[in-house]
Amino acid sequence: MADIAETAGTAHTAVDALVTVAPRPPRRRGIECALIVLAVLLSVYGYCAVGLAHDGTVPPGTVRYGAGLGLLALLAHGAVRLRAPYADPLLLPIAVLLNGMGLVLIYRLDLDTPGNRAAPAQLYWSTVGVALFIAVVVLLRHHRVLQRYTYLCVAAALLLLTLPIFFPAVNGARIWLRLSGFSIQPGEFAKVLLAVFFAGYLAANRHALALTGGRAGRLRLPAGRVLGPVVAVWLLSVGVLVLERDLGTSLLFFGLFVVLLYVATGRTGWIAVGLVLAVAGALAVGWLEPHVHGRVTDWLHPFASIEAGRGAGQLAQSLFAFAAGGALGTGLGLGHSVLIGFAVKSDFILATAGEELGLAGLSALFLMYALLVERGYRAGLALRDPFGRLLAIGLASIVALQVFVIAGGVTGLIPLTGMAMPFLAQGGSSVVTNWIIVALLIRISDSARQCHGTAVP
Amino acid sequence: MNLPDDLDFARREGTRTIRRAAALCAVLLVALLANATRVQIFESGRYGGNPANHREAIDRYARPRGDIVVDGRPVTGSRYTGGMFRYERTYTDGPLYAAVTGFSSQRYGTTLLENAQDPLLAGTDPMLSLFPLWNDFVRRHPPGGQVVTTLNGAAQRAAYRYLAGRTGAVAALEPSTGRILALVSAPSYDPGELSGASASVAEAWTRMNGDAAQPMLNRAIRQTYPPGSTFKVVTAAAALDAGVVWDPDERTMSPNPYLLPGTTTWLRNETYGCANASLRYAFEWSCNTVFAKLGVDVGPRTMAATAEGFGFNDPGLRIPFAVAPSTFDRKLDQAQLALSSIGQFDTRATPLQMAMIAAAVADGGAVQAPYLVEKTTTSAGETVSSAAPHTRYRAMSPATAAVLREMMTDVVRQGTGRTAQIPGAVVGGKTGTAQHGVGNSGRPYAWFISWAQAHDAAEPAVAVAVVVEDAAGERGEISGGGNAAPIARGVMEAVLDSQPGYGPNSHGSASRPRSGTSGRLWPSPK
């Protein structure tokens, strides 16, 4: 990604150099529109490929699916064109493509689990997500408005995080709110709220955090006075972990806070403190909490259940699926990732991509995420106001950490923690949240590029 | 830019930290890509081969399996299961062909032809596709091919019918080519019961394996028995080829009873007139004493060499599945050699081996490599491979073979094998009754090996070996002639009846006089 950033940076500088002549930067909405059409066509192609592989015919809903996705994408594009004309032209096409591919993969898995169809609900939630995207882009005139609600956000986030404790645990994790038929994961929305809070808090207190405290050798240690909030967030993460048994979310919150702390203060000491706390917390919880302990054991010995004669466990099945894909994959609709069983459409959705699209398709997906993150960081780099840049970095880091935690988990790189692959995985709360994240990034990048019409970074 | 110094510093500082955070994300991306490469490329084969990974099996059973063909008709099929393993094997006449087809089970793998021809039947054989590399690349398999067997359905059915309710085996060959015409083991089992992956399959498996009658044991090729007197064909061939006996009608210097050399054990006969009997008489009436002494006179090395010339001690025989090697010990003292020469001690043979002995006599001394697969084809019927008949062993000289043909014909015409006579054909045979068990306490095995040639044919059409483990009758009376010879006759008749110009309607007609009247009139050697 560093390479991409460098290359894109050079191009950007060259373009900006030209732009200094003109009073306003190019809007590039035409490029965005063309990329969106490409993204929709790719998704429709995938949808057809699934049907052809499975039944030998183009699935009956192709036109409806293509028209639906295309309409959503064009509505979103229209909103951007009207209200955020200088926004980064890559963000929306990437979101459309990832969401479209997610729908294709879920539809593909539905064919193998006829009693449990998830694609219609996912399409419904995608519609809600795009509606919220449009709402954010239209109604939020400037990202700095959010800074006013810093502490309201943290209160809301804490409320959302504590709510599921009063609801029954599902599959070992207390992260769902069940309301008359459908369930919501409030932790997903809490991510955005916490990112806003972190950005607001750190933007206001970054000098105090950066310039106080003693030294230990070459490291400048933070002062005890400002250590309080850090410990509070750490306790929050551990609390989430222990009370809700949600290792992934806790890891995400803590990672997000450490990254933003570092970006805001430039103090390596914070990273050191963060790492020490993270390792201590992880060790303690890994030792005490059987649910987490089991995940670590699975990660170290994914085939232990086979050797014990109990057949392949979920992680082993996931690894088998990736391995079956090889370099080029089996082709859409031709794999057997459904053998993973439970959570194949949510946490393990990437295994289907790995098996049917191969290392080539998987790498392409990773690069799409990397590009999304990179555009977020780029918007942050270009902004002047500390809140905006921290918010952009925070939102992009949420995506980056989330992809790493779940993709690393299902491929056996790190212990598996339940988490949704952004846009790809089945899960309404997740899709909606990701569309809000992209909407905020659009809004921020619009400010970033607009105010740089005459200023070259 | 006129930013305040503080803000400017913070901005530059911020830019540096953002770039570092971005670099961290890049490290995470590289870690993900490297790990994905590890799993998908380097560990791919190992994970794919893990027994808990069902993908290989799913792929394998995703298509109907190719068929095994007897007499132009498939004796196998495939059934859509609707489960994860989509197709399972069916058999039109499972127990009848079980000793040839074996089973193809989703739970227990494959055996016999299903095993030996598995790549072709499953459609993974690269020979099946025009562009194998392209098919590998796009991961497409051609449909499974067909295996056309050499079996003669009528002979197979006859053997199966005659063995019904008994324990034993039949192997029948075409002497001039080595084509296997019948291969039956009784009691048999239905391989279709093992096809699927369900609990009933496991139940059937447990039941069949626990059955004391051992229905899944392929007695025709995987079980060796003491051949008893049928082995005297080999001893006679050795004696004639080695020059120990010049004239089969000359009296041999053999005492009755015969004292096994170096021991105090006397070997006796169950028939009369064996003292100093000629080779012909001794063969016809199965004199143990004469053949025991002949074996000793020939010597252990020549006896072993002759036995190996018939196919003994050959662990490499495949038809195309492996055949248990028949054994003749190379290191024997004289008493052991004497007993081995009459098919006792540790001489052991499969029924297929004994059919090869009869075929060697019928074919002028050469043993053609036995084979079961005439050809393999694609599902569309294009030939993939064809059998190449060839001589595998040289058992004896043609002159010796001619003498043995006469002597075997005598056995059927007027000796112990009269129950094998077939109107209109020359039949040669040899009976055997093999002792076994500790102190020979087991019920003896009844043997009969024979060949048959229609009067109007240029060469013998069939050689057959029959063994019956649970022969009827009292111990002393059990003989190959009584129990096994009628089965051999039935199989030989079935083969002769299916020859062109030798229909079932011509039985007993004037054009084909009884064999007894023309037993010594040989067609010229081919």
UniProtKB/TrEMBL annotation, chain A:
**Alphabetic keyword roster:** Cell shape, Membrane, Transmembrane, Transmembrane helix
Topology in membrane: Multi-pass membrane protein
Where are its TM segments located? 33-53, 65-83, 90-109, 121-140, 149-169, 189-211, 223-241, 247-263, 270-288, 356-372, 392-416, 423-442
Q: Establish whether keyword Transmembrane helix is in the entry.
A: yes
UniProt subcellular location: Membrane
Query: What protein is this chain from?
Result: FtsW/RodA/SpoVE family cell cycle protein
Q: What is the lineage of its organism?
A: Bacteria, Bacillati, Actinomycetota, Actinomycetes, Kitasatosporales
TrEMBL record, chain B:
Q: Where's the Penicillin-binding protein transpeptidase domain?
A: 168-493
Domain named Penicillin binding protein A dimerisation: residues: 65-147
Origin superkingdom: Bacteria
Q: What is this protein called?
A: Penicillin-binding transpeptidase domain-containing protein
Show the ranges annotated as biased composition (Polar residues): 506-518
Q: Where is this region: Disordered?
A: 497-526
UniProt xrefs under Pfam families = PBP_dimer_2 (PF21922), Transpeptidase (PF00905)
Tell me which species this is from: Streptomyces glomeratus
Which sequence ranges form a coiled-coil region, renumbered to this chain? none
